[in-house]
What we know:
The structure holds 2 protein chains of 2 kinds. By secondary structure, chain A is an alpha/beta fold. Chain A has helices at residues 53-60, 89-94, 110-120, 126-139, 143-146, 159-171, 189-202, 215-221, 239-243, 250-256; strands spanning 13-24, 27-38, 42-46, 70-78, 81-82, 96-99, 177-181, 207-211, 224-229, 232-238.
Amino acid sequence: MVGPERTESGGNSLLEVDDLTVSYGRHVALSGVTLTVRQNEIFGIIGPANAGKTTFLQAVNRMDQFNDAIKVDGAVRFMGRDVARWRNTFALRRQIGVVFPLPVGLPLSVYENVAFAPRLRGVSKKADLDVLVERYLRRAALWEEVKDRLDTLGSMLSGGQQQRLTIARALSQDPVLLMLDEFSIAVDPVTTMKIEDVLRELRSELTILLVTNLVQQARRLADRTAFFLDGSLVEVGVTEDLFTGRARHRETVDYIEGRFG
Amino acid sequence: MFQASALNDRNARIQRRWRLLFLVMTLLLILPVAIILGLLVHHGAPVISWSFLFEFPRQGMTAGGIFPALLGTIFLVSLALVFSVPLGIAAAIYLSEYARDNWLTRAINLAIINLAGVPSIVHALFGVGAFVLFFRFGTSILAASLTLGIMALPVVIVSTRESLQAVPRAFREACWALGATRWQTIRKVVLPNSVSGILTGVILEVSRTAGETAPIMFTGAAFFLPFLPESVYDQTMALSLHLFVLSTQVPGVPEGVPYGVALVLIAIVLSMNALSIGFRMVLRGRKRW
Ligand SMILES: Nc1ncnc2c1ncn2[C@@H]1O[C@H](COP(=O)(O)OP(=O)(O)O)[C@@H](O)[C@H]1O
Ligand SMILES: [Mg+2]
């Protein structure tokens, strides 16, 4: 495997996207996106609905495989390797944790939700699984709330707890990259803050791709932020620059200041 | 203010009238079923006894029991299931979980839906051509149950596929995102959550198969046999055909006997249906989303 490469402005790059174009049938959802995500950064993606943010994430972990209508052009290099060349896409996806906008608890118990990925990679001893389940639930700041009811269905938890459960589940893959797609859309503000704290702590261990509908969330968390609009990448910049009037594009400023959305 | 409440009163009145109408129509629908069942029980129940169920017919089928026909129906249906259920479920899994959405898949789906609607006499003729003559199974249990199986197959496929599709796609996507393969996703998430629907479909199909006459009449069911079949290459008696024969072909059958046969057949079918309803209730109690 090719090692991660150095990029212009220091830091190893984990994800290099080059001229990515994605279409659904004749509808172009994303066109000509080029950007680089560095290791151990939180990379924010903001933009109004239908800007192509979710589509971008799906191109990264090759979910296009499950939708016959999607066509992907251009290159996405993950850990130095083009994801289109990754023959075992399941192994690729195991490296990338995903959190969806609405919490999707698998129809399994809390315990089994978190034990799912470890089981997939061959952990089968109960004692080992117990340790892992506790570790990941703790990391997602959920352990204290569910430790006495690990056997209840994941879907019986509150919305905020379910979203943390899906974060625990994504972490249980031991991923290199964690992708969150508007995780706070159905979550109360307190839980949102809890999850944001979790993400800050995770930064030392992995890289986070944070798609968010809340521009302030990007400001609070992201090192760098990309602004997507109508399927194009308008600009990428250091988050603080974008938020302090140093954005290069008019639309970025307007969007950040809430003039459209 | 006054006008609004008058309008509400009127709407409520209209609603009551519609509800009454639908109630009456539903009752009308149940009526024939109730009458048939009542008649069957009234005439048939007196003839049913252990000896009726477990003895051979005697005196040109005007006396004795229905044992060979009862056993034959059980044989035919079980063997038909052995053919159609694994194949049908596998095909449904392929169509629902693996097949690409292209014209070929759509054509296959269309064909299956149409096959499910083909009259059973057509399946019977196919069975004669394919199994009795071409494969040289002769008129036999094998040919008859294969014919029944072919008839059941599209229905099993359609009902299984519908149960699979009822599992939300979001679960599959979450599972794939975790790095699970298609098969792991099917086994751990899709099947456990659709098994109740699949079983229900299969059981309903069993009950339908048990009552069929046309597909077995020319392929393996006999009017009367003095012995039980010894292998799948023998012919067999069957309840549905036996009922037909007793009521139209044999003179001097006591009046209650055909009713008794029909009652046994209906009891098998209804208990299968009850079983499937029971399944659904038990498993719905465990529904996970
Ligand atoms: N499965 C799909 N089939 C067809 N079009 C889609 C599909 N998913 C998304 N799109 C279209 O692609 C564009 C981008 O969508 P998406 O990536 O979901 O945007 P965002 O996540 O930024 O709201 C939209 O115009 C949307 O209608
Ligand atoms: Mg989206």
